[in-house]
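Write out the 3D structure for:
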Amino acid sequence: MAIHIVQLVSPRAPGEGPRLGTVRRPPRGVPKSEFARRDYYDLWLPLLSPPAGLVKFALGAKDEKEWNQFARKFRAGLSRGPAAELLSVLALLSHHSSFSLGCYCQAEARCHRSILRELLLERGAAISNP
């Protein structure tokens, strides 16, 4: 029982459980009925994705200093309200069920899912992969 942090569209790992897509927009040109079958996600959670302007800032980050600015702003947006409550629920559920959170980005180190991983660990979540 744990949360798997994944790149959406990567092949599903055994025991990964349902995928939760933490992306701002659904995949283009893919019928909604195909999202799960094509390894995108089973449930869309845009609440846990950065706002469009912050995504643009992150994609343009030229160095570690700018990436850290993005991380601080993204963390601040998830520190209160429904997003913070959802992270706490997911952390709790991670001890009783297996599921995954994902985004399209190839490198987790420069993706908001790395920050989601940290926030979930801070809430005591069980995370399966390093």
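The helical segments are 52-59, 64-77, 81-93, 112-122.
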